[in-house]
Design brief:
Length: 193
């Protein structure tokens, strides 16, 4: 299975996030999965890639050419395959199409965008791949609260709870990704409008 990990590129984050994401990357590889990620060498992207690579896993990085040209992010040097794209849209499209599941580790604006894009596409039934939000050190508690509040106030259909799962450790994460059977609901059952 190819598992896409979306997460922070920043090297300035607390070491607990680095440690847990690196362990998750290692577990991913030990279970025989391949890592698909944004190609960065720092932050949680780099941590997931180091963990997977050090455990003998295959690592596929996908990064826009302008990141390297403009020195936006350090690249992870150990990629088995590095795909360069012309745009962020192309990058996300390739990651989405190539992957069998998505793991959202803590991150910022780009990570939020990636999560909501794969979630929206799943709601619209463009894919039926597992989406796990790995809530390391309770980073995503407020996101979980926002989602719940949005459902309670009628902005998000409550059936959308079946489209993703907040997980709190690697055992729960891989159980969900490896054992989920998908969602047997139509767009009309997931989206009001």
């Amino acid at each position: 299975m190819k598992i896409c990990v979306f997460g922070a590129a920043s090297p300035k984050i607390d070491s607990i996030f680095i440690k847990e994401t690196e362990a998750m990357g290692a577990e991913l590889a030990k279970r025989g999965h391949e890592l698909v990620f944004g190609g960065g060498g720092n932050g949680l992207m780099g941590a997931a890639a180091r963990g997977a690579k050090n455990a003998g896993g295959e690592v596929i990085g996908i990064i826009p050419k302008f990141f390297e040209d403009e020195n936006i992010e350090a690249l992870f040097e150990g990629c088995d395959d590095l795909i360069e794209t012309d745009s962020m849209r192309d990058r996300k499209m390739i990651m989405e199409e190539m992957s069998d599941a998505f793991v959202i580790v803590p991150g910022g604006i780009g990570t939020f965008e990636e999560f909501f894009e794969v979630l929206t596409l799943k709601q619209l039934r463009r894919h039926d791949k597992p989406i796990a939000i790995y809530n390391i050190a309770e980073y995503y508690n407020e996101l979980e609260s926002v989602m719940t509040t949005s459902m309670m106030k009628g902005f998000i259909n409550e059936n959308c709870k079946s489209l993703y799962k907040f997980v709190y450790n690697t055992e729960e994460l891989f159980k969900y990704i490896e054992e989920t059977d998908g969602v047997d609901l139509s767009v009309k059952q997931l989206k009001d409008g």
